[in-house]
Specification:
Elements lengths: L1 H23 L11 E9 L9 E6 L4 E6 L5 E7 L2 E8 L5 E9 L4 E9 L7 E5 L2 H4 L8 E6 H6 L17 E3 L14 E3 L8 E4 L2 E2 L1 E2 L5 E2 L8 E9 L12 E6 L7 E9 L8 H6 L7 E12 L15 E12 L12 H4 L37 H9 L7
Parallel strand pairs: 1-7, 6-8, 12-17
Antiparallel strand pairs: 1-4, 2-3, 2-5, 5-6, 9-16, 10-11, 12-13, 14-15, 16-17, 18-19, 19-20
Length: 399
Amino acid sequence: MPTMHRLVSFSLQLTKFLLLLPILLCAPGYAQVTSGSIFGSVKDSSGAYVPNAKVTVQNASVGLLRAVTTSEAGYFVVTNLPPGKYTIVVEAARFKKLEKTDVILSATDRLNAGDLVLAVGAVVESVSVSADAGELQLQSNSGERSDLVTSKQINDLALNGRNIIDFVKLIPGVVSGFDGQVAGTGGIDAFNVNGTRANQHEFTIDGASNVDTGNNGGTHVTLNPDAIAELRVLTSNYQAEYGKAGGGQLAVVTKNGTNEFHGNARWFHRHEGLNANNWFANQSGTPIAKYRYNYLGYQIGGPVLIPGTGFNKNRDKLYFFWSQEYYRQLIPGGYEQFRVPTALERVGDFSQTVDGNGNPLVIYNPATGTPFSGNKIDRNQLPPQQQAIFDQVSNVLSL
């Protein structure tokens, strides 16, 4: 029994190890067309550049820490950074440590942190400054023209149809006829950006193309708006990495988990009882048509914790984010007309059948190519399968 117990215990430990091994071997990867970079220079109080200074860029909410060293000319650049709020820490011998907080990096940004000026003093001393987000967003190093729709704007602005492509209408230079009334997959070829053709846009989600080239520029998926961290729309003069299309570039960055648990649940509802009937319908006595939208959704994100293992106890290694949205729509539609075979047509008699202009409809024998006499098909030539199908069709509308 002791031997069997040890074997079972060893098997359980081995199973846990094999399950955790892929997670432990994972390395973060950020899509090229959504990540950004932060660059700048380090100087002393006299304006001289400080070489070999240690520059650390940190995003505490996702446990990201990157460190570089300034060049001989005092410059630094940190690339492949996901969007978020960063703190820049600069350390150098014989200078006080400098911390610059609240540095906001958006998707595809090449953010100039400016001149970081160090004060003379011991390394244990520090100077903290808060970034001026408005100043930092100035793209003085690039002629790129782009606009950003933030998560706050997505949450605050009314969105009829829950389709994020409607936000493109807010961007200068966009001419759109896309109504966005029906959510789900849709085209991005219903608007023009700065006069370019409507089918020349590219739409990416976390760097992966979301354009269905085999469906005239339709999108593969339409994201739940509450799962989006930001939407960047590049309209002109963008960098060479944004290839494939010559029109606008729509870059969506989805939300990610952080070191704290966050979540919500929501319900969007529209009902015809909350709307007034139109004037013409009231005059004719027509009641208001059923017009109902129901959107149910939720999302949750946070650190991945495995009870009893101590894994990720500092909440700085692995995170998750999950979001779903369901919708059901009941909207008024037009009438559709269908034709069913008459009682005579069911037995092969088309002598009274006419076309849309009232002319007799000629029925040909497929074997000989000649018309049937009197437009009547011999019942012996009618397949039994056809009669079985006709038996399933209602004869209420027969003439």
